[in-house]
Structure formats: structure tokens, C-alpha cells
Design goal:
The chain has helices at 23-34, 66-75, 89-94, 96-117, 142-161, 185-195, 212-223, 242-252, 274-280, 288-303; strands at 14-18, 38-43, 57-60, 80-83, 122-125, 166-169, 172-174, 199-201, 206-211, 231-234, 239-241, 258-260. It is an alpha/beta fold and 305 residues long. A seven-stranded parallel β-sheet has the order 3-2-1-4-5-6-10, with helices on both faces. Strands 7-9-11 form a three-stranded mixed β-sheet.
């Protein structure tokens, strides 16, 4: 399955990207635009006009406000949705009620938007945090609980209304521009290496690290297909350790002063991307070593203007 390339003479697909001012949203908007489609970003906070991507429509909206989302979708003739809006682990821990409103009510609003608008292309971000783990065999934080709930909401909307969706479970997405959330530490370590600064990753773990370029490609491929029933899938099963991240950084910057704290961050006991492989077939993956090199090179270019 190819990415969402626009055949010559065909109409562009207009994709509403909720939370589109975030790390993944900006990359996905650029990818859709470059493929000849029309991205419409909806976010609570928008960039200054001089920082906005050319060829991308920007609208302000709260994911908790369904009428506002409906107006945006109607005004822009939206025919696809990439739902990325959400609050990450630290915010959900600090403010559980707000986390539930954004991550759970927001998911319901997006499913309802698809139902009322008759939209059949819908991809949303879940998280590997939704997978049970540890002694209680449950998500280890509220963020994971909310994401698991979102997956079940999507399934019930299929059972009740026939709405088909693809839920993707990234684990650690890294690359230039990733600066929020606990696992942003991986990107920050690469930035520190590029700058010659010391940095301690605040945890040790074994995780699935995926560069933003690969994740963007997967999202675009998912928007290009229409499965017969809801799909929920991990993105990869290639688990690597934080020690291997440090080794990849030092392969590019031999004298990098990057370390990892001994505090162990629990990881899922198993991962499965078979549903995604069945949906898309093969795609070009990026190794941790190649993704690290791209990230550090990008930070070096930014430093030199």
C-alpha cells in the first residue's frame, strides 16, 4: 500500500487534523500538503502567522467543543480526519479531570463528527501506554487508561453506527520539534548531543523508538485505506533500550555526554503490529541509528541557520 499520493487529475482530500499544531500534526500537515492534499489544522493554540505552513488552513477550536468542530468540517468540506489532539502523561497526572475531558470526551466528539458528517477516513492516535503491563496488568498511568477507553469508544461507534477507524499506538516518536511529554527526553538527548551539551535521560527502559518521518508515512498510508472494521495496532515491535539510544547518539557524536538515570520506566510485556501489517502491507522503516543521524543533523543545521 502506497502513501496518500494524489493521482493526477483527482480531487485533493481535505483532512481535518485535530491537535495539528503539535509535533506529529505539523509533520503530517506538511506531508499531506506535499502529496497534493489539503490539510486543515484545528487546535486550541495556533502558531503566529509567520510560522504557519504554506498551503495549510489553520482554525482554532477546542476538541471538547463538538459544534465548533462541526462548523470547521462543514466550512472546509472535510472528508478525512486525523485525530491527534490529546494531553500527555504529565498533564493527565497533574489534572486527571482535564485529561479525561480532552482525551475521552475529545475522542467521542471526533467519532460523532465522523458520524454526522459521513466521513469514512478516520485515523486517530492511541498509545502503547494503553497496553496492560506490570503486576496489576493494567495501564500504568491515567493517560494509558484514557487511550484504552478511546479505542473502545471507536469500536462501539462501529457496532452502533458502522463508523470505521484506524487507531495507532505509537510508543516513543522522536525527531526535531518533539519537546513535550516524558518521552521527549529521547529527542532532547539527541539535541544535547548535537550541541555538545551534557544531558541525562530521566529514565531507563526498553521501548519502541520511531522517527517522525516513518510515523508520518504510516499515518498517510492509513488515510489512504478504508478497512472493513476498526483496526487498533501497535506501530512496531522493534524494542530498543535507552543504552542503545545513547550508543546511536555516540555513533554520530563520539564524545556526546549523554547518560540515562537508573530509574526504570516499565515497558509493555508484548507488542503486536500484525493488524497494521495486514492493513498496509510492508512499509519502509527507519532504524534507530538512521533516525538518530537524521535528528542530530537537523539540529546541527538549525544551529548554523
Amino acid at each position: 500500500m502506497q502513501a496518500l499520493e494524489r493521482p493526477e487529475g483527482s480531487q485533493p482530500i481535505t483532512t481535518l487534523i485535530t491537535g495539528g499544531n503539535g509535533f506529529l500534526g505539523r509533520a503530517l500537515a506538511a506531508g499531506l500538503r506535499d502529496a497534493g492534499h489539503r490539510p486543515v489544522i484545528a487546535d486550541l493554540t495556533l502558531p503566529e502567522h509567520g510560522e504557519r505552513l504554506e498551503g495549510v488552513t489553520y482554525t482554532q477550536a477546542d476538541i471538547r467543543d463538538l459544534p465548533a468542530l462541526l462548523r470547521i468540517a462543514e466550512d472546509n468540506a472535510v472528508d478525512a480526519i486525523a485525530h491527534l489532539a490529546g494531553l500527555v502523561i504529565p498533564v493527565c497526572r497533574k489534572n486527571p479531570v482535564l485529561g479525561a475531558e480532552v482525551n475521552v470526551i475529545g475522542q467521542i466528539n471526533v467519532m460523532e463528527l465522523a458520524r454526522q458528517m459521513g466521513i469514512s477516513r478516520l485515523v486517530y492516535t492511541s498509545s502503547l501506554a494503553a497496553r496492560p503491563r506490570g503486576t496489576l496488568q493494567s495501564p500504568t498511568n491515567l493517560y494509558g487508561v484514557y487511550k484504552r477507553c478511546g479505542e473502545d469508544i471507536a469500536k462501539v461507534y462501529f457496532l452502533d453506527y458502522g463508523i470505521v477507524s484506524v487507531g495507532l499506538r505509537p510508543n516513543v516518536v522522536y525527531g526535531p520539534g518533539r519537546d513535550s511529554g516524558e518521552t521527549a527526553a529521547i529527542t532532547l538527548a539527541m539535541r544535547a548531543g548535537a550541541r555538545g551539551e551534557a544531558y541525562e535521560i530521566p529514565f531507563s527502559s526498553v521501548m519502541c523508538f520511531q522517527h517522525i518521518d516513518e510515523v508520518t508515512d504510516i499515518f498517510m498510508r492509513c488515510l489512504a485505506v478504508q478497512p472493513e472494521q476498526p483496526v487498533v495496532s501497535d506501530l512496531t515491535t522493534d524494542a530498543r533500550s535507552t543504552d542503545e539510544v545513547i550508543a546511536a547518539i555516540r555513533k554520530v557524536v563520539p564524545d556526546a555526554r549523554i547518560t540515562a538515570a537508573p530509574s526504570f520506566r516499565p515497558a509493555p510485556e508484548e507488542m503486536d503490529n500484525a493488524p497494521l501489517q495486514a492493513l498496509l502491507g510492508d512499509w519502509q522503516s527507519l532504524s534507530l541509528e538512521e533516525g538518530t543521524r537524521r535528528t542530530i543533523d537537523a539540529f546541527r543545521r538549525a544551529a548554523t541557520g
